[in-house]
Amino acid sequence: MAEGALMPLDELNAALGPVLAGREGEAFWPLLPSWPTLQPLAELLLDTPQFFVMFWNTCKLVFPTVLGQLLVGAPAAWAFSRFRFRGRRLLFTVYIVLMLMPFQVTMVPSYLVADGLGLMDTLWAVILPGMFSTFPIFIMAKGFDAVPDALLEAAALDGAGPLQTFFRIGLPLGMPGILSALVLGFLECWNAIEQPMTFLKTRSLWPLSLYLPEIAAEKLGLAMVSSLLMLAPSVLIFLFGQKYLELGIQSSGLKE
Questions:
Q1: Which of 26, 169, 188, 224 is deepest in the core (most CB within 10 A)?
Q2: What is the pLDDT of residue 31?
Q3: pLDDT at 249
Q4: Looking at residues 134-156, what average pLDDT do you find?
Q5: Residue closest to 145 by CA, chosen among 137, 134, 135
Q6: C-alpha dist (Å) from residue 124 to 61, 94, 199
């Protein structure tokens, strides 16, 4: 993609035209562009306002969803990990089953619920189901399981209540699992295609994931540059959260 973003349009069409445009001949890919150019980047940044609209739409979908996963998922995961109540195992099993179900299975009921609530063709139709996703709760619960019981017992002896224990002990010590869930949630929401395609009919609400296939069919240079700019936040978030992903995986296997 980086080479394609710097490649002249005629050379790019000659290289990929037989594949993407159905032309005669065989596709090829040169090692380096014959004459590097920044024209596709300038065209995208200066002459393509819809790119910025859809980039902002993506941000409006992703960040509320991830914030909701934190506000909803962390307390629920703490309850599953530390509280013992009737039906806990059954309820957690239901969460795991829902986590394993692909979107195609829950698409119809989700559509009916969104339509019944009057949320169709709004960003909330995508945000709300993502906020209550079960996968972040599963990851966070495994991280909370690594918190030593002796530490919680000591906090209880010192007079700490459930909320104080959660905020002062659970959240700091469970931060690797929380950040792991948020990183994975960001990557999933940023690249989501099926959910926006199902719930959003107005093109002005589309995220970049739905915009890229359209420009790929029109202009290859813009498609390469757009793909790079869309990939950049995911790469940066992953590089930032890689350490926490590793810590979350390690903490889930620790025993007191």
A1: 224
A2: 77
A3: 58
A4: 87
A5: 137
A6: 8, 24, 9
Angle at Cα 223 formed by Cα 221 and Cα 226, nearest 5°?
Answer: 110
* One-letter amino acid for residue 120 of the chain: M
For residues 54 and 11, which has the higher predicted lDDT (pLDDT)? 54
Output the six-digit token pair for 225.
């540059």
Tell the residue number behind the tokens 């790079």, with chain if given.
228
Q: What is the mean pLDDT of residues 203-220?
A: 78
Residue with tokens 């530490």: 151
Distances (CA, A) of 43 to 38, 217, 221, 227, 231: 9, 16, 9, 14, 18
pLDDT digits (tens, 9 = 90+) for 63-84: 999 999 999 999 999 999 888 8
Residue given tokens 């104080």 in the structure block: 164
* pLDDT value of residue 247: 65
Complete domains list, the chain, with CATH: 1-34 (no CATH), 38-251 (1.10.3720.10)
3-state DSSP call for residue 29? Answer: coil
Mean local confidence (pLDDT), 25-41: 80
Question: Could you give the 3-state DSSP secondary structure of residue 102?
Answer: coil
Burial of 139 (0-12, 13-18, 19+ CB in 10 A): buried
Instruction: Give the HSE-up count for residue 69: Cα atoms under 13 Å, Cβ half-sphere.
Output: 30
Q: Token match 């002990």: residue? A: 169
190 close to 41: Cβ distance less than 8 angstroms: no
